[in-house]
């Protein structure tokens, strides 16, 4: 059904939002792809302890999503709700990236304390604000689902571009800079500057057209507890949350294990760059195709098809785990599924916000985005702790010249089977999602209610 919300977003704003996607990626991509490897193989920390620190931190991180999402929602300035936060966090995001790699030589205990503190400052506070402000921004730019989905796709394209850059050139940069901790810090400096510049452009150029007070009036003053209760009544939010948790699990397990698998199973750590490229390049290509496809076939159907392709890739890599052509082909298939899920879940979540408003009368964009992000981060923490714990139990030592057969077996098993398990669950959840069919009715009813006020 047609609705009256037809705000047009110009190309300049779309590109600016794409840059916001690029600016928000370094903190996430570096952690997903290289941070655990840096802690274990460069600094020499125990993978099990590192995994435990990240798990505990992700719980704090998840709580901060709920709190900071509510704070962002209540922001009212002449620049809007999200834009001020995007501008504020640009500089601090650069600091957060650098803090992760400046682990001082103060002994193992001191280094673990520093890892805990720097990780939580960069993730629990800085990245949480950055992520919530950027991904919530389209919901304040327009209520037109086509325009909004387009913005999310542009953002996803930006994320893909920066993910490709980070995953494919980081090891090369680090090697060129000397391969030690200083080399990692130098690479982090480059990403810090890029992140800050891109986010600043997003905050300056993008405009907020949706006035939340005009939509829900006094309902914006509802308590945090009331908002949480409204979230619990939103079944589509729970379905998307499940997709995000297991999708992030498959993504993190794949990228974190690429470097280990390349070094210890395939015999050359630099092969990880090719694997990362195969996993990230399709994200960009798919991004340009998904907007017209989603308008024709629906967001849920695009996600379901992509995750199905991802599942076939996971099975293929299990069947033929040592052939580089097969590994790269299967990795591309996994990437297609990741691209479809990662690109579609944000507009699906935006639709769930409208559904929640329709069902409960309460509208809270950043809080709902934050609550979803909380689940995502806890899921990432669980996966990281699982990977590190199993490797630690198997006797893996990052700085050892030779690993035991048991340790190498743990690397192989984690790389092959963890993404497969999570992808099966992701496919099952996407299968039952059906909000696409009801969205037009939901928006029409919301319009009718507003006209009666």
Give a written overview of the molecule:
There is one protein chain. The protein has 453 residues and is an all-alpha fold. It contains 15 helices and no strands. It has helices at 11-43, 47-73, 83-101, 107-141, 145-176, 181-205, 212-216, 224-232, 235-264, 271-297, 299-319, 324-360, 365-393, 405-432, 435-452. The radius of gyration is 21 Å and the shape is globular. It starts with 10 loop residues before the first helix and ends with a helix. The model has no long low-confidence stretch (mean pLDDT 85).
Key traits:
453 residues, mainly alpha, 15 helices
Low-confidence blocks of residues:
none
Shape: globular
DSSP summary, beta strand count? 0
Strand content: under 5%
The count of helical stretches stands at 15
* Percent helix range: over 70%
Distance from first to last alpha carbon: 22 Å
How would you characterize the largest beta sheet?
none
Could you state the order of secondary-structure elements as H and E?
HHHHHHHHHHHHHHH
Radius of gyration: 21 Å
Let me know the average pLDDT: 85
Q: Which class best fits the helix and strand makeup?
A: mainly alpha
């Amino acid at each position: 059904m047609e609705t009256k919300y037809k705000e047009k977003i110009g190309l300049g704003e779309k590109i600016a939002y794409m840059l916001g996607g690029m600016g928000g990626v370094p903190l996430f991509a570096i952690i997903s792809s290289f941070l655990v490897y840096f802690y274990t193989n460069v600094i020499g920390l125990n993978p099990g302890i590192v995994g435990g620190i990240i798990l505990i931190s992700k719980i704090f991180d998840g709580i901060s999503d709920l709190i900071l999402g509510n704070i962002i929602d209540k922001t009212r300035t002449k620049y809007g709700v999200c834009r001020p936060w995007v501008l504020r966090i640009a500089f601090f995001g650069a600091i957060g990236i650098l803090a992760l790699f400046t682990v001082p030589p103060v002994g193992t205990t001191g280094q673990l304390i520093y890892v805990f503190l720097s990780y939580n400052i960069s993730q629990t506070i800085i990245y949480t604000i950055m992520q919530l402000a950027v991904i919530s921004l389209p919901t304040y730019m327009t209520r037109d689902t086509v325009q909004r989905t387009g913005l999310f796709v542009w953002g996803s394209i930006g994320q893909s571009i920066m993910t490709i850059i980070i995953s494919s050139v980081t090891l090369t940069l680090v090697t060129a800079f000397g391969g030690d901790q200083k080399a990692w810090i130098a690479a982090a400096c480059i990403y810090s500057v890029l992140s800050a510049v891109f986010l600043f452009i997003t905050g300056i150029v993008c405009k907020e057209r949706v006035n939340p007070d005009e939509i829900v009036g006094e309902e914006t003053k509802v308590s945090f507890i009331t908002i949480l209760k409204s979230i619990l009544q939103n079944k589509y939010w729970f379905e998307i949350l499940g997709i995000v948790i297991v999708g992030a699990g498959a993504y993190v397990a794949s990228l974190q294990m690429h470097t280990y698998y390349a070094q210890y199973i395939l015999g050359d750590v630099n092969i990880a760059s090719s694997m990362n490229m195969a996993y990230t390049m399709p994200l960009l290509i798919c991004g340009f195709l998904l907007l017209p496809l989603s308008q024709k076939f629906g967001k849920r159907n695009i996600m379901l098809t992509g995750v199905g392709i991802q599942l076939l890739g996971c099975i293929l890599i299990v069947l033929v785990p040592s052939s580089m052509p097969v590994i790269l082909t299967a990795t591309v298939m996994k990437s297609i599924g990741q691209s479809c899920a990662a690109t579609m879940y944000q507009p699906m979540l935006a639709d769930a916000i409208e559904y929640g408003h329709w069902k409960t009368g309460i509208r809270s964009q950043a809080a709902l985005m934050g609550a979803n992000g909380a689940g995502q981060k806890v899921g990432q923490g669980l996966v990281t702790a699982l990977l590190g714990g199993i490797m630690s139990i198997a006797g893996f030592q990052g700085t050892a010249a030779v690993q035991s057969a048991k340790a190498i077996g743990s690397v192989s098993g984690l790389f092959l089977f963890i993404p497969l398990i999570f992808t099966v669950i992701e496919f099952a959840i996407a299968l039952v999602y059906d909000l696409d069919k009801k969205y037009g009715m939901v928006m029409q009813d919301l319009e009718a209610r507003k006209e009666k006020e």
